[in-house]
Design a protein that fits this description.
Elements (H helix, E strand, L loop, with lengths): L3 E6 L10 E5 L3 E4 L4 H15 L3 E3 L1 H9 L3 E5 L5 E5 L10
Parallel strand pairs: 1-4
Antiparallel strand pairs: 1-2, 2-3, 5-6
Length: about 90
């Protein structure tokens, strides 16, 4: 079975430097619309369609840590999706 590796291309520590989501394995597939959420959703659809086994590179979590406006959620299908952060209030300790 081919191992597929997923990464997010951006300049680490540089907000706004996102370029795209890249899946490497037997072939390289690039999702580079400039919209992280759309690119991630396209990757998920592609991987599900081909029933790919995928491991994530550290750039995936680093992207979320370096860019405050993004987070992952798990949807009903069991997949994690990259979505814009929607915090509307700041939680403060009592």
């Amino acid at each position: 079975m081919t191992q597929n590796r997923l990464s997010i291309e951006y300049d680490e520590g540089v907000p706004g430097s996102y370029r795209g989501v890249v899946l490497t394995g037997t072939q390289t597939q690039r999702f580079m619309t400039g919209d992280p959420q759309a690119d991630w959703a396209a990757y998920i659809a592609h991987a599900k369609n081909l029933k790919l086994s995928v491991i994530e590179a550290s750039s995936v979590t680093h992207f979320v840590f370096d860019n405050d406006g993004w987070r992952f959620i798990t949807k009903e299908d069991g997949c994690e999706y990259l979505v814009p952060e929607d915090k509307t209030e700041i939680q403060t300790p009592a």
